[in-house]
Amino acid sequence: MIKNGHHTANQQGKEAGAAPASTTCSPEKRRRTIRVWCDGCYDMVHYGHSNQLRQAKAMGDYLIVGVHTDEEISKHKGPPVFTQAERYKMVRAIKWVDEIVEEAPYVTTLETLDKYTCDFCVHGDDITLTMDGKDTYDEVKRSGRYRECKRTQGVSTTDLVGRMLLMTKAHHSNIGNSDYQQYTDNFGKQGPQCHSPWTGVSQFLQTSRKIIQFASGKEPQPGDTIIYVAGAFDLFHIGHVDFLEAAHKQSDKPYIIVGLHFDQEVNRYKGKNYPIMNIHERTLSVLACRYVSEVVIGAPYAVTRDLLDHFKVDLVCHGKTEVFPDKDGSDPYAEPKKRGILRTVDSGNSLTTDDIVQRIIKNRLQFEARNQKKEAKEMAVIQAMKRREEEKMKDRERARAVQ
User: What is the distance, to the nearest Å, from the Cα of residue 309 to the centroid of all Cα atoms in its chain?
Assistant: First the structure.
């Protein structure tokens, strides 16, 4: 059974890799709230981060997310793209998060888990390292208070930075393009033989199941105000969150529908080889936001009479950004204006996707150095793991030979 877009507790736990719940536990234990801890940089928050938090929440009842400071990230990893204030707000907007802890320590300790009364922490099946190459989860792993969830293939902050630095149409339509592949082979790599599976680029494959996992699954209820907003929502960021929060405040009972334009449409009015994220990636990013109830994938650019009637839209909101004309030069908001239901919403945040790209380009050398450093540390760990495994195999062979 699927309820509200999420699996039941047992189904979620199995999917996320959690141990199945005991069927013989006492009523007292069944009533106890399982508190889960996650932490990270959460820089340039994308659907991979959201999917990790979704899986973590599925392993318990209450999810606390620790977010590191700019200083800690710069010390261990390199300069973040977003400020800590921006990152705190982005993580708060993810619908599976119950609470965030600001200025969380970079190394996860038992002391932190105990301080926030968390049963265990959850991380993806990659590895996070300190500045001296140590596993940040070593202590909680050894204590048995660590759970692992599956890393989302096809997206990473490294990959997104690479797309922005390259800014080619191939970044979303053909990841195997020779120009893009040559660039990503060099981006953040120490040499041709040095390739970390955690930093490398892979193809994102959208599935209907993934959309269901992210979707709210809630129908509009009597008395809800159905609010429609449309756009690219590319590189879903704090500017988008502030706008959606402002739209959410337009009613006591808002039901927000986001119309996402197809890649070709976004490229028509934005140019500059946008969008950076394809329609499938943008869909998951928007669905993960707590202010969003529904997404129209590939919505028409013009807000038409048919669209407004079909979704029974009460209010259409647009930010203070420029409205580009439709292909025929007409006003895409002519119909909602005619009905008197168009409202301009001031989010108080003027950040755009283009601004983020400029941040990356401005600090290009720093980000390249950051990813080279990250890749080198990861490769050192992989080689060490490989040597340990080889030693274990030799020990087993020697034991068999003695027998």
Answer: 32
CB 224 within 8 A of CB 248: no
Contact 78, 370 (CB under 8 A): yes
Query: How many residues would you count in the chain?
Result: 403
Q: What is the pLDDT of residues 14-29, one digit of tens each?
A: 344 443 344 445 555 5
More confident residue, 380 or 96: 96
Closest by CA to 223, choosing from 251, 248, 250, 245, is: 251
222-231, 339-348, 385-394: segment of lowest average pLDDT: 385-394
Here the tokens at position 112 are 């932190």
Characterize the bridge pairing of strands 35-40 and 120-124. parallel
110 CB contacts (<8 Å, ≥6 apart)? 139, 140, 143, 145
Neighbours of 258 (CB within 10 A): 26
Q: Which of 166-175, 207-216, 356-365 has the lowest mean pLDDT?
A: 166-175
Q: What is the DSSP string of 69-83?
A: -HHHHHHHT---SS-
Q: Would the pLDDT of 263 be above 50?
A: yes
Please say if the pLDDT value at position 365 is more than 80. Answer: no
Q: What stretches of 94-194 adopt beta strand conformation (E)?
A: 99-102, 120-124, 146-149
What is the chain's alpha carbon radius of gyration, rounded to the nearest angstrom? 23
Q: Give, in order, the Cα–Cα distances in Å from 161 to each of 80, 164, 273, 284, 296.
A: 11, 5, 15, 19, 27
Q: How would you class 296 by CB atoms within 10 Å of its CB: exposed for 0-12, middle for 13-18, buried for 19 or more?
A: middle
CB hemisphere CA count around 269 (13 angstroms): 20
E-strand ranges in 108-201 read 120-124, 146-149
241's CB contacts (< 8 A; 6+ apart) are: 89, 90, 93, 289, 291
Q: What is the pLDDT of residue 259?
A: 98
Q: Are 164 and 276 in contact, with CB atoms under 8 Å apart?
A: yes
Q: Which residue has the tokens 């509009």?
A: 220
Name residue 45's amino acid: V
**Pick from 112, 102, 100: nearest CA to 136:** 112
Please report which residue ranges of 27-137 form alpha helices under DSSP H.
Answer: 27-31, 47-58, 70-76, 84-92, 110-115
Q: CA-to-CA distance for 352 and 163, rounded, in angstroms?
A: 16
CB burial class (10 A; 0-12, 13-18, 19+) of residue 283?
A: buried
